[in-house]
Structure formats: structure tokens, C-alpha cells
Amino acid sequence: MIEVVGLTKRHGAKVAISDVSFAVAPGRVTGFLGPNGAGKSSTLRILLGLDRADAGTALIGGLPYRKLRDPLRTVGSLLEGSGAHRSRTARAHLSWVARSNGIPKRRVAQALAEVGLEHVAGKRVGTFSLGMGQRLGLAAALLGEPAALVLDEPVNGLDPDGIRWMRRLLKEYAKGGGAVLISSHLMSEMAEVADDLIVISAGRVVASGPLAEVTAGHTSLEEAFFALTDPVYRSGDAESRS
């Protein structure tokens, strides 16, 4: 469903990502992990048509995002909050998104219910907590009943109950055949929800595959992550084994 091949992006002399390749399969939740500045955001922005790559391709359903006829029916995304104007109500925001993308009006109420915001549909977004804003962003992502979801830190601001809810939602979405690409800094949460992992460090993919394969030989996902991305950790680990 999602295929990235040889993606490279430079900002002047700085290389943000270099030869990044991976795939996200339908029916799977794929975790996208990396330290701050590793290239996650650059990759996701190119995938969603917000930036252009210097080399390589990023395809969703076989096409670049900019060539998708009905983008929100193909891929729903959540990057940097809900994107809603603070003076709009939740219902008004989703209604505008639906109209602009040819999505039936009935989906507004359905999407609000799916994320547990039906009781605040008439409230202004400016009064929402961070967690409520995340739920509204997810409602917009789900609005077109897309085949894929691309979510950047979707549990940010959610309380423990909300995190458990998000986990169940993503697993059910994948179980229904959807492809999910999710970035997060919460290792324990990623270990609970991800079927597959992509680990990026210094702009390059350093590991990818099923969760069990990436974490093999380590006591936890967190240990595997640091072993893959932190040169100091790797050096210390090597010394401890010598």
C-alpha cells in the first residue's frame, strides 16, 4: 500500500535523508522509529506531498500523493496536531474537510463518534485539550474511510485510557485490511501496537522488518532501538561483551 524507494532529501549542504526505502503492507501496523532529527518528519512530509524529494519515490497505492484523485479516500494523515482553526467547532471543521474532498456529510458525525468526540461536536477547537485535538486530527484522517493511515505521534497528549483506546483503534483498522504507518517516541507503546518496524538514524534506515526480528537478541524494543541508533550505546555494549 505504501512504498518508499531510494528517497533522498537535502537542505542546502545538509542531507536530511539518504536512500531511504521501506514498505508498509495492508493489514499491518508499521512503527517508524528514530531519534530527533533522524529524518522521520522529512520522510513523512515527502510521502504526503508536503515536500519534494531530491531523488527516489514515495508511493501510496502505486501513486505519488500529488497524483491521487481522492487523497482523503486513499490515505488519512495526522501531522502536527489537528490542523483546525481554533475558532471553528469540531463539527464545522470536519464538515469543511468533507465538503472540500467530496466526502458524504454523514461521515462527519460518524468520524466524531469513532474518536469519542460526539459530545463536544459543537464546541470550539480552541477550548480543546491537547488530547482532544489529537482525537479531532484522527477524526479528519478517518473521514474518507481511507485504505492507509499515516500518523505522527498520535498518542501525544492522550491519557492512559486514551492511549489504550488508540491502540485498539489502530489494531482494528489494520485487522480490517488497512495499512498503518505510525511514528512515536514511546517504545513501550510501539512494542504493544506495531507488527513491523522501520528504524531510521542519521537519515538512513538502519533496520526494518517484523517486530520480533528487529528486537531479536535484545531484552526490549528500547534496548534494540539504542543499540541500532546510538553509537555511544553500541560502543559501551561492545566493551561490556569484551
Description of the structure:
Residues 2-227 form the ABC transporter domain. One of its GO terms (molecular function) is ATP binding. This is ABC transporter ATP-binding protein. The chain has 242 residues and is an alpha/beta fold. It has 2 domains: 2-61 and 148-241, 3-Layer(aba) Sandwich (Rossmann fold); 82-146. Helices cover 38% and strands 24% of the residues. It contains 10 helices and 9 strands. It has helices spanning 40-47, 71-74, 90-100, 106-114, 130-142, 160-175, 187-193, 211-214, 221-229, 231-241; strands at residues 2-11, 14-24, 29-33, 55-60, 75-78, 148-152, 179-183, 196-201, 204-210. The strands form 2 sheets. A 6-stranded mixed beta sheet has the order 5-6-7-3-8-9, sandwiched between helices. A 3-stranded antiparallel beta sheet has the order 2-1-4. Helix 3 crosses helix 4 (106-114), helix 4 (106-114) crosses helix 5 (130-142) and helix 9 (221-229) packs across helix 10 (231-241). The radius of gyration is 18 Å and the shape is globular.
Instruction: Give the helix level as a range of percent.
Output: 25-40%
Radius of gyration: 18 Å
Low-confidence parts: none
Overall form: globular
Name of the CATH architecture of the largest domain: 3-Layer(aba) Sandwich
Most strands sheet: 6 strands, mixed
Total domains? 2
| Residue share in β-strands | 15-25%
Superfamily at the CATH H level of the largest domain? P-loop containing nucleotide triphosphate hydrolases
| Spatial separation of the terminal alpha carbons | 44 Å
Identify the strand order in the major beta sheet: 5-6-7-3-8-9
Count every helix, treating DSSP H or I runs of 4 or more residues as helices.
10
| Structure classification | alpha/beta
| Average pLDDT taken over every residue | 92
